From TrEMBL:
Keywords in alphabetical order: Leucine-rich repeat, Membrane, Repeat, Signal, Transmembrane, Transmembrane helix
Signal peptide: 1-18
Transmembrane portions of the chain: 626-653
Protein name listed in UniProt: LRRCT domain-containing protein
Keyword NADP attributed: no
InterPro entries linked: Leu-rich_rpt (IPR001611), Leu-rich_rpt_typical-subtyp (IPR003591), LRR_dom_sf (IPR032675), SLRP (IPR050333)
Length: 728
């Protein structure tokens, strides 16, 4: 550590020691500048450093009474406060004397307390107050009944943002905001407001954003917004409105009417908001839209009509004047059944969502004059086929979602004009095959999701060679093959996928054969991650539940208890070169095999769509891995052969001994005469002796049946022996 680092460290230590922080508080440097103190209590005996600019008092025991004293913040040396936060306490009242001397205070958060009373002039002498939050306090009586002393709720010439959400409000008196002339943002959401006085917003000359969502509004007075010409954002979602006719807000740009009770939209609905750019009508009960509805909203850019009861076909002139439309959502209208074409030109429309609309067929002109579409969602429909030119009108599309339809096949020219396509979702269909040539034009494809189909193989040999020669899918990084009908996968199908980073092959009936081993080794060497993909983008990807690497997966396929194959017999690939570990789903349905037959031409017929032929020379470098079954077989065969030879020799040996035991001992019946002792007879070794028989007399049992040829020879030998004795 050099001198400079030491000095910096000492400076930090000195700065920390220089901050006076009471025992019941924690003080630290704030990200926005200055220092922040977080305390569980506040009393006049505490002393804070002059550097404290942000104070937070939170989560005080609800059984412990919490209140502020007069001049409390100046007494504890907090005159430099910029932000004051007191939340989740039992604080009940707020008075001006609490904030004396806090001239630099800008943001005050008093949410989720028990405040029932606030003096109208509490913040009158705070010149730069900008934000005040009183959310989550029971202020229903304070804001609904007139103040006997003042004709306003609060006085502040500088306040620009006021949050009164979730304050149990039911009725708002008309003079409530009379002394908040510079208010820009007003939040009245999540209350029980049923009606609004006409003059409530009369004095809010600069108001720009009003949030009235999640209330009980059933109708609005036509002149409610007559005095707020600058309002640009109005949120009326989650109420009980069924009409917006005759409401005028000429400067309004964003209008949210979702989660209401609209049933029809007429030409008068939007006449009072000609400048609206963002319009949300989702989650209503809209069944009919007049073709004049959006004519007055000529500047409309974002339109959401999802989750309604629209019945198709929609009028061709419905969006004729909305040439600036950028996003259009008609999703979850199951009775729409038909989409387009529409009159007009949609040159800037980049997102179109018509998912779950019951669409059974699309015409070639459905997307005409929409050549700027970047994201197209057709999922959850009833499409059974697609014309090969269906996407020719949207050459700039980058994402197409065709998941959860009834597609059985795809034409190889389907994406011939979509060279910018990066994400393709085909899950939940009935596809048996994906033509390799279909992917040639879409060289920039990064994500391919074909899970939950009926694929039994990826590509045959010709297709694989074609893909490799043309570098097809060379930019693909994510491939989802989950829940198909694969029994085996060949690494050669993936060799053209040189950028592959994540692969999901779970929920397939994979067999334990040599191909899966080769594939695992290739995946490991290529640093491909086994990952369960559960969404359609990185944002939608669900949490992983357990870690599983390719080696673990191979063990699951081949080394279950019921497998015949021993866990010691397969050379598992190692993963020591992996630096990351990404979770993988444990739900595998594998069908193990009891042998590893070497691939042959008969196993994978050439040019057949159901198979994939791989020449034996392709596996020449990998066949060593599977030499282990040959050696035991050879050893066992050799052992069996040796056993047979030994048994044969033993039988022959025993047969020979039995033969000799039946005859006198002699060299050969075909050679010279037997040698005899002088004056004693033949030289014969008895097999056994009896005690009563003299040793000199040889014993040959007569009850032994000898072969006739042997008997003749013995007779001849005896005769010759007798003659010899006579000669002697």
């Amino acid at each position: 550590m050099d001198l400079k680092q030491v000095l910096v460290l000492l400076l930090h230590v000195y700065s920390a020691l220089a901050i006076d922080c009471p025992d019941s508080c924690e003080c630290r440097k704030a990200e926005v500048g200055g220092y922040v103190a977080q305390c569980a209590e506040l009393d006049q005996d505490q002393r804070f450093s002059n550097y404290i600019q942000h104070l937070t008092i939170s989560n005080v025991d609800p059984q412990q009474s919490f209140a502020l004293e007069r001049d409390i913040f100046t007494k504890v040396n907090l005159k430099e406060l910029n932000t004051l936060t007191i939340v989740n306490t039992s604080l009940r009242t707020i008075s001006p004397e609490f904030f004396n001397g806090l001239d630099k205070l800008r943001n005050v958060d008093l949410s989720n307390n028990a405040i029932t009373y606030i003096h109208p002039d509490t913040f009158k002498d705070i010149p730069d107050l900008d934000l005040l939050s009183l959310s989550g306090n029971p202020l229903q009586h304070l804001l609904s009944t007139p103040n006997n002393k003042k004709d306003y709720f609060l006085y502040s010439l500088s306040l620009s943002e006021l949050d009164l959400s979730n304050c149990h409000l039911q009725h708002l008196r008309s003079d409530l905001f009379n002394e908040l002339p510079n208010l820009v943002t007003l939040n009245l959401a999540s209350n029980n407001i049923k009606d609004i006085e006409t003059k409530l917003f009369e004095k809010l000359e600069y108001i720009e954003e009003i949030n009235l969502s999640s209330n009980d509004l059933t109708n609005l007075k036509p002149d409610l917004f007559d005095f707020v010409s600058d309002v640009t954002v109005l949120n009326l979602s989650n109420n009980s409105l069924d009409s917006f006719d005759s409401i005028e807000a000429m400067g309004l740009e964003e209008l949210d009417l979702s989660y209401n009770k609209f049933r029809t939209l007429q030409g008068e609905t939007l006449e009072g908001v000609p400048d609206v750019r963002s319009l949300k009508f989702s989650h209503n009960e809209i069944a009919f839209i007049s073709e004049e509805t959006f004519e007055s909203a000529s500047q409309l850019r974002h339109l959401d009509l999802s989750y309604n009861q629209l019945q198709g076909p929609l009028s061709q002139r419905l969006f004729q004047l909305n040439k600036d439309l950028e996003t259009l959502s008609l999703s979850n209208n199951p009775d729409l059944s038909v989409f387009g074409p529409f009159d007009g030109y949609f040159g800037v429309l980049y997102t179109l969502d018509i998912s779950k609309c019951g669409i059974k067929k699309l015409s070639v002109e459905s997307f005409s004059k929409m050549d700027s579409i970047s994201n197209l969602n057709l999922s959850g429909n009833e499409l059974t086929e697609l014309d090969e030119k269906i996407f020719n009108h949207i050459p700039s599309v980058m994402s197409i979602d065709l998941s959860d339809n009834n597609l059985q096949s795809l034409h190889e020219n389907l994406f011939s004009m979509n060279r910018d396509l990066e994400k393709l979702y085909l899950s939940g269909n009935k596809l048996h095959h994906m033509p390799a040539r279909m992917f040639k034009p879409i060289a920039n494809l990064h994500v391919l999701d074909v899970h939950k189909n009926r694929l039994t193989y990826l590509w045959n040999m010709d297709e694989t060679k074609y893909m490799k020669d043309n570098k097809i899918l060379s930019e693909l990084t994510y491939l989802n093959l989950e829940e198909n009908r694969f029994k085996t996968l060949h690494k050669h199908n993936f060799e053209s996928l040189t950028s592959l980073k994540a692969l999901d092959i779970s929920k397939n009936q994979l067999q334990c054969d040599q191909h899966i081993n080769y594939l695992m080794q290739w995946l490991i060497s290529s640093k491909v991650t086994p990952i369960r993909y559960l969404g359609k983008s990185s944002v939608d990807m669900q949490k992983e539940h357990s870690e599983l690497h390719w080696g673990d997966m191979l063990s699951k396929i081949c080394f279950r208890r019921e497998d015949v194959i021993s866990s010691q017999s397969l050379d598992l690939p190692t993963e020591t070169d992996r630096s990351d570990s990404i979770a993988f789903d444990n739900d595998f349905n594998f069908k193990p095999s009891t042998a590893f037959p070497f691939p042959s031409k008969e196993d994978f017929p050439l040019n057949q769509t159901h198979g994939f032929y791989v020449e034996s020379r392709v596996f020449s470098n990998e066949s060593v891995i599977y030499s282990w079954p040959i050696l035991p077989i050879l050893v066992c065969g050799l052992c069996i052969l040796l056993v047979i030879i030994n048994l044969t020799a033993l039988l022959l040996y025993r047969s020979g001994r039995s033969y000799r035991s039946l005859s006198p001992r002699f060299d050969s019946p075909f050679k010279s005469q037997m040698r005899v002792r002088h004056n004693t007879g033949s030289l014969y070794h008895k097999l056994y002796e009896e005690c009563s028989v003299p040793k000199d007399n040889p014993i040959i049992k007569n009850n032994v049946d000898l072969p006739k040829n042997i008997e003749k020879k013995l007779t001849l030998i005896t005769t010759n022996s007798t003659k010899g004795e006579d000669m002697v």
